[in-house]
Design a protein that fits this description.
This protein is mainly α. It is 42% helix and 8% strand. The chain has 15 helices and six strands.
Length: 396
């Protein structure tokens, strides 16, 4: 088709539109609106878009209400403009889905609406709502930094030093007595009957929204743990030990080891002692007992000033029955055989991997920290060898 003919055809079309606008505005307007809903780009064309807008009248500009309260709206990824319009209409945030769709097209925002969380008010015009949906709302957050190896009471104590939107008591209650609904959402937890979430809390930096509840924060801790410890590591060990038992051993290794390369060997010491029917005699467990007893004498608000994991003077005095509460005795591996009933802290992935595959190849039963070595230990097979090294390093 020649250029001249194209121009003639376009002129004819515009003439028909002009005549139709005068002669049959309702029929033509409805047809253009229908076409515009299928192909929003049509509504941005001169004259054609004007006819559609004129037909819609106030529907394209009237707010849903006079309520200026901001409402949280979450738009799912892949949502079409039509689907967004229906969602907003159902929430009472726009007065007319068609008017909103046309407003989006007329504002040149088709294809620019984003997925995410937004703040929208019913008093906003459709065009203002559309513009708001191009910039996801970023709720202010509070940074909380947690390292691996903390017991849950330490997390609660640290929460007391930060202006979080929930109380220490709310957090402690959830960590110690998680509700069934929460447990059901994390099938890997492997909690004993009446168990706490000890040992299953992630580490790192958490950006806690200022509107977060204690449960949302706990879920953030569990989700982070699941990210740091993938599914293949969240199960039973090859030798039949449950994940709960793996976590318990890993928590002791976490509190003892400073170097990742030593963790399998250290786990091997404890695993070999268990295999031989010898007590673990793990220092972290008696410190855990001492701390647990001490925390019971303090108000929750005082926990933030408590010094956790400090080796008690003369560690064996006062840490055997009946000098500590009877219910804490099972965690004292100096007087009870086997693993303690629960983890004593939340271990890192490296400690969990070590507990899953402990290195017992050397049949070592003891280790001692080498002073000024950056956390390195000296391992021994016999008690005599261990005591000689303890004397060598100044521990005896």
């Amino acid at each position: 088709m020649s250029t001249t003919r194209r121009l003639a055809l376009l002129a004819t079309l515009l003439l028909l539109l002009a005549v139709g606008r005068v002669a049959a505005p309702s029929i033509l307007g409805d047809a253009l609106i229908s076409a515009g809903l299928r192909s929003p780009g049509i509504l941005s064309l001169p004259l054609i878009g004007d006819i559609a807008v004129e037909r819609l009248g106030a529907r394209i500009s009237t707010p849903a209400s006079d309520d200026t309260s901001l409402v949280r709206v979450e738009i799912a990824a892949g949502s079409s403009t039509a689907a967004i319009a229906e969602q907003l209409y159902a929430a009472g945030l726009i007065a007319d889905p068609t008017g909103f769709i046309v407003a989006v097209g007329r504002a040149g925002l088709e294809g620019q609406l984003q997925a995410g969380v937004f703040q929208v008010a019913g008093s906003m015009t459709p065009a203002e709502v559309a513009a708001a949906l191009t910039q996801p709302y970023r709720e202010p957050a509070i940074a909380v930094q947690l390292r691996a190896g903390l017991r849950l009471e330490q997390i609660v104590a640290q929460a007391g030093t930060i202006d979080l939107p929930f109380t220490q008591r709310e957090l402690l209650d959830l960590l110690r007595t998680p509700p069934a609904a929460l447990i059901a959402d994390y099938d890997w937890l492997d909690l004993p009957r009446g168990g706490t979430l000890e040992g299953r809390l992630g580490s790192g930096t958490f950006n806690v929204p200022v509107s977060a509840t204690a449960e949302r924060f706990v879920r953030m801790l569990l989700d982070r743990f699941a990210e740091q410890v993938p599914a293949e590591l969240r199960g039973s060990a090859a030798d039949g030990r449950s994940f709960h038992e793996v976590l318990t051993l890993a928590s002791i290794v976490e509190r003892e080891a400073a170097l990742d390369e030593e963790r399998p060997r250290m786990a091997g010491v404890y695993a070999y002692r268990l295999q031989e029917g010898i007590g673990l005699f793990a220092d972290p467990t008696i410190i855990w007992v001492a701390d647990s007893a001490a925390l019971r004498t303090l108000k929750l608000s005082q926990w933030e000033n408590y010094e956790f994991w400090t080796f008690p003077p003369q560690p064996y005095v006062g840490l055997v029955p009946p000098r500590v509460p009877q219910d804490l005795v099972p965690w004292n591996t100096f007087v009870r055989g086997g693993l303690p009933p629960t983890p004593v802290a939340s271990p890192s992935r490296a400690s969990i991997e070590a507990a899953l595959n402990p290195d017992m190849s050397r049949k070592e039963m003891y280790f001692v920290l080498i002073p000024d070595s950056g956390g390195r230990h000296d391992f021994s097979k016999t008690l005599a060898e261990h005591e000689a090294k303890a004397k060598k390093y100044g521990y005896k």
